[in-house]
Write a structure and sequence with these properties.
Subunit structure: Homodimer.
Subcellular location: Cytoplasm
Shape: globular
Organism: Gordonia humi
Number of strands: 9
CATH architecture: Alpha-Beta Barrel
Distance between the termini: 44 Å
Strand content: 5-15%
Radius of gyration: 19 Å
Family: Belongs to the uroporphyrinogen decarboxylase family.
Strand order of the largest sheet: 1-4-5-6-7-8-9
Number of helices: 16
Protein name: Uroporphyrinogen decarboxylase
CATH class: Alpha Beta
Number of domains: 1
Order of helices and strands: HHHHEHEEHHEHHHEHHEHEHEHEH
């Protein structure tokens, strides 16, 4: 049975206000991958620690999550983790290889492979929950803590391909050629995603984001038939907790309406589509998040001001037309060679415009 936990006052947090249709005290901003290689303090603390090792160290997770809040004054902290963490916790043999990303030792491509996958139990992500507890004692009352999980389709893509892919040919081969096996795998991964999000919500996060990073590789028809039912179950299972749900994918301009229909409170928008156009596509029932091109942060302060002014104008037009709110973010994650000062300047600019 779903229980709703008492948590920090939502109206204190600009991000939660914007996500729920209230008036924020200032324009909320956070950046995907704001904790990472763009920060010298991150590079120092991770110098001799592997990515997955770091993700299962509660003290390290809490410290890395706090770093961009201290440096940049963002309105949210996103839990330092990786979308494959719940798979690793559930026993999948994988590693995150520098310069490559997640690599699966034995790709999942047969019914026997799917049947061999284990469930995720809450105690297997105890370090993540412990990190959330630490963060809730450190974060300012106005800064929201965002938990997240990879969506079932994106997790399936990694498992089937064995790592990152440009074509997703093995994934689509199973999806289109063996729908029964596909839905069995997706059902399992939906359970994993729900368990991971529930654990974070029970530990006290203020919002959650579902990353369907690779959904943009699909047609709308394929998304509706093979992905949407499972994403809908994820969102329905966490709806009763009373925390805002954010849904985001890359290259999903043509899927925004479908991704919104699965059930979300905020839809993330990448840089390929204007925010006000995106808001028209998804209707006026959900807030919008985005959508600065991450490369703009490499191009100098004049470019950043120009692009942010345009994006904020688009967001304001959307809100004026009835969209509940706008959360400023990038259209994907901070690039590793971005100067930390450029991010700090962008946050200051967003709060001042």
């Amino acid at each position: 049975m779903t229980t709703v936990r008492a948590r920090r006052t939502p109206t204190e947090m600009p991000l939660i206000a914007a996500a729920t249709g209230a008036v924020p005290s200032r324009r909320p901003v956070w950046f995907m991958r704001q904790a990472g290689r763009s920060l010298p303090e991150y590079r120092a603390i991770r110098a001799d620690r592997g990515m997955l090792e770091s993700c299962f160290d509660a003290d390290l997770v809490a410290e890395i999550t706090m770093q961009p809040v201290r440096r940049h004054d963002t309105d949210a902290a996103i839990l330092f983790s990786d979308i494959v963490v719940p798979l690793k916790a559930a026993g999948v043999d994988l590693d995150i290889v520098p310069g490559t990303g997640p690599v699966i030792a034995s790709p999942v491509r047969t019914a026997a492979d799917v049947a061999a996958l284990d469930r995720l139990e809450p105690d297997q992500v105890g370090a993540v929950n412990a990190a959330i507890g630490r963060l809730l004692t450190e974060l300012p009352s106005t800064v929201a803590l965002i938990g997240f999980a990879g969506a079932p389709f994106t997790l399936a893509s990694y498992l089937i391909e064995g790592g990152p892919s440009r074509t997703y040919e093995n994934t689509k081969r199973m999806m289109l050629g063996d729908p029964e096996l596909w839905h069995t795998l997706m059902g399992h991964l939906t359970d994993v995603t729900i368990a991971f999000l529930r654990a974070q919500i029970d530990a006290g996060v203020d919002a959650v984001q579902l990353f369907d990073s690779w959904a943009g590789t699909l047609s709308e028809a394929s998304y509706e038939a093979f992905v949407a039912p499972h994403a809908t179950r994820v969102m329905a299972e966490i709806e009763g907790y009373g925390v805002p749900r954010i849904h985001f994918g890359v290259g999903t301009g043509e899927l925004l309406a479908a991704m919104t229909r699965v059930g979300t409170d905020v839809i993330g928008v990448d840089w390929r589509i204007p925010l006000d156009v995106a808001a028209e596509r998804v209707g006026r029932d959900v807030a919008i998040q985005g959508n600065l091109d991450p490369t703009a942060l490499l191009a100098g302060r004049d470019v950043v001001r120009r692009e942010l002014t345009r994006i904020i104008d688009e967001g304001e037009r959307a809100v004026a037309a009835g969209t509940p709110g706008h959360i400023v973010n990038l259209g994907h994650g901070v690039l590793p060679n971005t100067e930390a000062d450029a991010i700090t300047h962008a946050v200051e600019l967003i709060h001042s415009l």
